[in-house]
TrEMBL record:
Keywords: Copper, Metal-binding, Oxidoreductase. Gene3D superfamilies: Cupredoxins - blue copper proteins. Signal peptide: none annotated. GO terms for molecular function: copper ion binding; oxidoreductase activity. Residues 63-164, 195-332, 461-581 form the Plastocyanin-like domain. One of its GO terms (cellular component) is periplasmic space. This is Copper resistance system multicopper oxidase.
Length: 589
């Protein structure tokens, strides 16, 4: 296989599971018995590693069903490497359908990135594919399938690259891999989401809900939206896992009093944002997406799907609940940090469900204007405000129209049925800590807290690119710039090799989207000094807001660029990024 590998649109769609087609019915679906997958994972390391993908049965709590396991476990094994080594990984596919493994966050030749139809053809049933590459970095990462919806079924696992030099900042080191399990087949979930986007939402407001005023209820009704449309799938369908263990498993991490414990937190879920906290114990964030940052002391942080954060804690003697609460607050993953063998901490109760606000609809400062003005300088806006006692209630009557004003979109956005909302006044929301965390009474991580520990060589961007995250929530259509992936597979986003580009992402939807670029790290434009912009591979763009990063396109090849909410990607929010030297005529233009 060479770097010139290409595939047509039909070939990509067939390999990725994005079009329907006849396929053999797998043995597990025909009632054949399956081996039970182990909960949790072992470790593989060294210069040669073998991974085997197969059908298994998986049980957690009261939920039991089919899973795709690697080396017999869900999650698959921890792949542990060392910075500077060369590694060869043989992946054998024992399924009855094509499969793949993508090394999330790794810098490597694009033909080993593991995306069928973009970087390689995929791994056919009964075949083995050899990944071979030098390890150019260190940090906390993970791996997962990029074929169909196999990731939801259990085909994922952690990946840790130890630094070439020892790190004396901690005494113990644990991986904390967050995910979900459901016995429902992922294609059935996708089908039900397309039938009705609220199908799995059990947090919806009702007519009897007294938390909303009549005016607010009328406003949301006119927009045909629900203020608790936070997550597409919640705890009514999912059991939330920590290292493959459900809440009933009493997973524990041992420590001795006074020890510094490094927790490598990985969000390996298909669809869930988690709010992570250890009540009563502070955390110090030292890395984001595997990249070192200046230490930040926090009590809680939100981790989007596909992100990683490394934290150091020094817990007091006793037991401490490690809580990963789903963003919609429908359920949680739970583990215990304990200095007492056999002792388990009691989990805290779930908090009240989160409610969306005007800012989540792309109304910028309207939230503050609608709730006591929030310090907005109205004189500077060219008008004055009446006294509060005389102020009429805000008229939301025409808002349903303004939320779909496609004249606000740039001309290169394709307007059609795939867009049911346009953010009227999107603002940079990189200082927002995440839905539900803006009102908690303790320290919460924000992107604006992050600064690279080591200086990044900085160049001013040579051009700017704006990409709109678009969707039709009712029809479950998701896209970039109004174009779903099946319409743009032969029209990639093009970057010149070593080109420096400032990319602005505009979220024209009411859902947070974790946007991931394969094969690169970009630098967040978050207010840190130019030399210390933090590097990430996945960026959460808040509802109705914007986020900006600087990219040096220095990894040649074809790379996937997509929302890492699995069913959003499956529904079309994906593109190909091509990094090639520009032709001389273009370069000189």
């Amino acid at each position: 296989m060479t770097a010139s590998f290409q595939v047509g649109r039909r070939g990509f769609l067939a390999g990725s599971g994005l079009v329907a087609g006849a396929m053999a019915v797998p043995g597990w679906a025909r009632g054949q018995s399956l081996t039970h997958a182990r909960r949790g994972f072992g470790e593989v390391s060294g210069e040669r590693i073998a991974l085997s993908i197969g059908d298994h049965h998986f049980t957690t709590g009261e939920r039991s069903g089919h899973a795709v396991a690697v080396n017999g476990s869900v999650p698959g094994p921890l792949v542990r490497l060392r910075e500077g080594q060369d590694v060869t990984i043989d992946v054998t596919n024992r399924l009855s359908e094509d499969s793949s493994i993508h090394w999330h966050g790794l810098l490597l030749p694009f033909q080993y990135d593991g995306v069928p139809g973009i970087s390689f053809p995929g791994i056919r049933p009964g075949e083995t594919f050899r990944y071979s590459f030098p390890v150019r970095q260190n940090g906390t990462y993970w791996w997962h399938s990029h074929s169909g919806l196999q990731e939801q079924q259990g085909l994922y696992g952690p990946l840790v690259i130890d630094a070439a030099e020892p790190d004396s900042r901690y005494d113990r080191d644990y991986v904390v891999l967050l995910s979900e399990f459901t016995p429902m087949h992922p294609h059935e979930i996708a089908r039900m989401l397309a039938v009705g986007e609220h199908y799995f939402n059990r947090q919806m407001t009702t007519l009897s809900d007294g938390s909303m005023s009549a005016a607010d209820r009328l406003m949301w009704g006119r927009m045909r939206m629900n203020p608790r449309d936070i997550s597409d799938v919640g705890a009514a369908t999912y059991t939330y896992l920590v290292n493959g263990h459900g809440p009933a498993d009493d997973l524990a991490f041992a420590f001795a009093p006074g020890e510094r414990v490094r927790l490598r937190v990985i969000n390996g879920s298909a669809m869930t944002f988690f709010n992570v906290r250890i009540p009563g114990t502070a955390m110090t964030v030292i890395a984001a997406d595997g990249q070192e940052v200046e230490p930040v002391a926090v009590d809680e942080f939100q981790i989007g799907t596909a992100e990683t954060y490394d934290v150091i804690v020094t817990p007091q003697a006793g037991t401490h609940a490690l809580v990963a609460e789903a963003m919609d607050r429908s359920g949680m993953g739970i583990a215990t940090l304990t200095s007492q063998a056999g002792a388990i901490a009691a989990p805290p109760p779930l908090r009240e469900p989160v409610t969306l606000t005007m800012a989540d609809m792309g109304m910028g400062g309207m939230d503050e204007m609608d709730h006591g003005s929030g310090g907005v300088d109205h004189a500077a806006m060219g008008h004055t405000m009446p006294a509060a006692a005389d102020a009429p209630p805000m008229d939301h009557g025409g808002m349903d129209h303004s939320m779909r004003d496609t004249s606000l979109l740039p001309p290169d956005v394709a307007v059609g049925p795939g867009i049911d909302m346009v953010a009227p006044m999107p603002v940079d929301r990189m200082d927002f800590p995440g839905l539900g965390l803006d009102t908690v009474p303790h320290r919460v991580l924000r992107y604006t807290d992050l600064a690279a520990r080591d200086a990044n060589p900085h160049r001013m961007p040579e051009r700017q690119l704006e990409i709109h995250l678009t969707g039709n929530m009712e029809r479950y259509m998701w896209s970039f710039d109004g174009r779903r992936f099946n319409a743009v597979t032969d029209d990639p986003i093009r970057f010149g090799f070593d080109e420096r580009v400032r990319v602005k992402l505009v979220n024209d939807t009411m859902m947070a989207h974790p946007i991931h670029l394969h094969g690169h790290f970009f630098e967040l434009v978050n207010g840190a000094g130019m030399m210390n912009q933090p590097r990430k591979h996945t960026l959460v763009v808040q509802p109705g807001g914007t986020a900006t990063f600087d990219l040096t396109a220095d990894e040649p090849g074809d790379w996937a660029f997509h929302c890492h909410l699995l069913y959003h990607m499956h529904a079309g929010m994906m593109q190909t990024v091509t990094v090639r030297p520009f032709p001389a005529a273009e370069a000189g233009a």
